[in-house]
Each structure stands twice: as C-alpha cells, then as structure tokens.
Specification:
With about 325 residues, the chain is an alpha/beta fold. The chain contains nine helices and 13 strands. A five-stranded mixed sheet has the order 1-7-6-4-5, sandwiched between helices. Helix 6 runs parallel beside helix 7. It starts with a strand and ends with a strand. The model has no long low-confidence stretch (mean pLDDT about 95). The structure holds oxa(dethia)-CoA.
Amino acid sequence: MTTKIIGIGSYVPETVVTNKDLMKFLDTDDDWIKERTGICERRVSKDKGTCEMAAEAAKRAIEDAGIDPAEIDLIILATSSGDRAFPAGAMDVQAAIGAVNAVGFDITAACSGFIFGLHIANGFFASGLYKTALIIGAETLSKVVDWTDRGTCILFGDGAGAAVVRASETGIIKTLMGSDGTKGWTLECQARNLGNCLNGVKPELGFMKMDGKEVFKFAVRKVPEIVAKILEDAQMDPDEIKYFVLHQANLRILEAASKRLGIPMEKIPVNIERYGNTSAASIPILLDEMKRDGKLETGDKLVLAGFGAGMTWGATLLEW
Ligand code: UT7
C-alpha cells in the first residue's frame, strides 16, 4: 500500500509586496533582489493567521478531491510560524473544515515540512492504521522575519498549500528524508528564551536569523544529491520524470540543481518570482498551480524535493 495525492489546493494572501515596496523602508534594490534570488514580489498577510490560511487551502484541496471532510482520518500541519505555541494548529484546521473523525498534529521541519508530512502519512497508510489524510504546509513568515534585516526579509512570503492523500496501490514510489543538527545555527528563530520565577527574566520572542551563504552552499550541494539518490534508489532515469518540483528558495539554487543534474529548466517549474520563499507551503502551492494550469496528468512521474532549517531535507518520487 502506498500514498496517492487525490486533491490539491492553496491559498495566498491578497496583498502583494513588491521589491519596490520594500525599497520604501529598507536599504535594498529591486535589481539586486531579482538577480540574486529571482523574486519580484511576495504575499504578506494583513489579517489571516497561519491556521486560517491553512484551513482555506485545505477546503480547496478537499473540494478538488471531491471527498467529505468526515472521511479524513489524519491532519498534519507543517509549519514553523504557527499562531500559538499550543494547541497544534492542525486542530484549528480540523474545526474549520469539520473533519470530525480526524486526529491532528503539527510538525516542524521548516521548508521540508510538507514532504515530511507526506512521508508520515505514507507510514500510517503502510501500517493500515489510516486511509485518508490531509497534509498542509502553511506559513506566516512575515511575522517571524526581522524587517530591518535585508539579508533575510526580502526572501520570504506568506501562504498555504494542502494535499488530500489516500492509501492506494499507486502513488509514492520512493521516499528519502534526512537531517543534520550540527547545521541548525545556519537558519534559526529563537522561541521564548528561558525566563521564569527563578531568574526573573521576562521571556521574549526572537526573529529569524540566517547565514545566507552557508544555507546557499548547503542547498546547491544537497538538492542535486537527494534528487540523484532517489532516482538511483528507484533505478529511474531523469528522462522518465516529467517535473522536478523543488522547494522555491532561490532561483539560483534551482538553476544550480538544473546544471548539476543535467535537467533542463523546463522540467523544473518556478513560481518564486511571485511568492518568494513560503517555506513548508512552497511545494504544495506550486503543485496546485501546475494542476490548475493543466500541467499534470494521471500517471506522470514527479520528484518533489526540498531542504530547510534544521538542516532538514526530503524527496519524494511519485506517480500523479
Ligand atoms: O528555505 C531556505 C531558506 N534560505 C535560503 O535559501 C537562503 C540561501 N541563501 C541565499 O539565497 C543568498 O545567500 C542570499 C539571497 C540570502 C544572499 O545572496 P548572496 O549572493 O549570498 O549575497 P551576500 O550575502 O554575499 O551579499 C552580497 C552583497 C553584500 O554587500 P557587500 O558586502 O558586497 O558590499 C550585502 O550587504 O549584497 C548586499 N546585500 C544586499 N544588497 C541589497 C545583502 N542583502 C541585500 C539586499 N539588497 N536585500
């Protein structure tokens, strides 16, 4: 038994923030951002939190799948920018969509979160415990970035993407996941620091910090490595894959992967110019756009691959 994506949906906030908008309060430059990242604009949420966007994307995925929310056994919300420390945002989604028979929880694997969620569901399906799951990647990174730090804030955007998956004879062919805690310092966001009745310190929240160069070096090595490995594990050739749906972190990272793997850019879809890096949401948002653009047909072989803070990485080879 494996896992089939039977429905896909996404939601992005209405408000567009262009590079030129950023130049109004930040010492940055439209050409610099386009050249170094490929990003022209991103969406920023004025009023909807992570869970509200997640629920909206989930409703669209459920509609696409044509199922009743009561059929969902499991909800996994992948996010690094939840609305509350607890309870899990997956339960807000459960309430909003009426998935009365589901159990839900959140996972934190940064930009690899959607892929990790897919693989967790795949494990539950293999064990026979559950049949239908909702996997969501949703982020409001706009509240996590330091808007005075031009080295990070220009990269990120808000949004949500969701997939309904079901236990099936066809679907996921191979999975690959990994992490390296020694590289955690390269991209991090402090939660509340230790403050309590003993030390009298008032706990405060931190902002995202990133060593962009280190993360870049890691990504240009790791993404081609995991794509090549999953193809090797499946004994498949890149020519047999219709699209390589890669985490949208930086256009230069996607181009480096194209070059190293010898895969033409036509097979690596890109939407980073419109959304920036939406972390756990980037792969399902892209898949949803591809589906709506008529790019995906039943039986197509796809490789999904991503990397993120942790460091974490993951890849899925699947049949659509
Ligand atoms: O999901 C994972 C998330 N993270 C990533 O994927 C990040 C990966 N890293 C990157 O994408 C790139 O490292 C960045 C886009 C963040 C930075 O690009 P870079 O080519 O590594 O630039 P840099 O940090 O080496 O900076 C080059 C110059 C510096 O000026 P000087 O020292 O050469 O005078 C920076 O101060 O560009 C300057 N700079 C900027 N200039 C205008 C840095 N950020 C900006 C900016 N606008 N926003």
